[in-house]
Amino acid sequence: MQSLWFFDDVNLFKVLCPHKFSEYKNEHSFCAYNKKEYIYFESDSANKLYLIENGKVKIGYYTEDGNEIVKAILTKGELFGEKAILGEDTRDEFAQSIDNNTSVCSIGVDTMQDMMRNNQTFSFKVYKFIGFKFKKLERRLQLLLFKDTKTRLVEFLDELCLDFGYNCDKTGDHIIKHPYTQKDIASLIGTSRPTINILLNELKEENYLDFNRNEIRILKKTA
């Protein structure tokens, strides 16, 4: 299973929230949010990055018609607001807690840039991590534009398998222990929760998968 707490050999949480490092101790703070509370809004100043300690955070924006577009739903160990270190002055998206007791660690842009200047290897890994996130977002937007809903779901499950899946040696199934609700998945692939439930049951009847609240099992294909 790929852990979102790490990229390569860097433990992101320990690096970005290292209260044991006295020179950065005063630059870090933890903030708690309840469900539906905003961490930042569109057009807010982009002066911090954030790392999720617990809970889930929704990243998105609103169209001119007031429709909400969800770009990502992030979980424990994931970084957001990172465009601040790429020169963004104001936010072009919102960040909202979608869990009670969501906790995030905030890192000032100046502090982050200082840490990156002092550690070239870490700097490279941060930019690599950001690039990976952008590629995932671009792929998801392509799915929304060019694929039907069922195909979007199947390809999203393939993506989940890379992030949260592992093989079961006894059956050869791919087991995905993930943090998303059906509502989360619906938001991410641009459909409704009832539609997700219908499609999951269709895929179950086709012997493509089995699922419960916290686990999806992609069944091994038999000849």
From TrEMBL:
<dbReference type="InterPro" id="IPR014710">
    <property type="entry name" value="RmlC-like_jellyroll"/>
</dbReference>
<keyword id="KW-0805">Transcription regulation</keyword>
<dbReference type="InterPro" id="IPR036390">
    <property type="entry name" value="WH_DNA-bd_sf"/>
</dbReference>
<feature type="domain" description="HTH crp-type">
    <location>
        <begin position="147"/>
        <end position="222"/>
    </location>
</feature>
<dbReference type="InterPro" id="IPR012318">
    <property type="entry name" value="HTH_CRP"/>
</dbReference>
<dbReference type="InterPro" id="IPR050397">
    <property type="entry name" value="Env_Response_Regulators"/>
</dbReference>
<feature type="domain" description="Cyclic nucleotide-binding">
    <location>
        <begin position="12"/>
        <end position="91"/>
    </location>
</feature>
<keyword id="KW-0238">DNA-binding</keyword>
<dbReference type="InterPro" id="IPR000595">
    <property type="entry name" value="cNMP-bd_dom"/>
</dbReference>
<protein>
    <submittedName>
        <fullName>Crp/Fnr family transcriptional regulator</fullName>
    </submittedName>
</protein>
<keyword id="KW-0804">Transcription</keyword>
<dbReference type="Pfam" id="PF00027">
    <property type="entry name" value="cNMP_binding"/>
</dbReference>
<dbReference type="InterPro" id="IPR036388">
    <property type="entry name" value="WH-like_DNA-bd_sf"/>
</dbReference>
<dbReference type="InterPro" id="IPR018490">
    <property type="entry name" value="cNMP-bd_dom_sf"/>
</dbReference>
<dbReference type="Pfam" id="PF13545">
    <property type="entry name" value="HTH_Crp_2"/>
</dbReference>
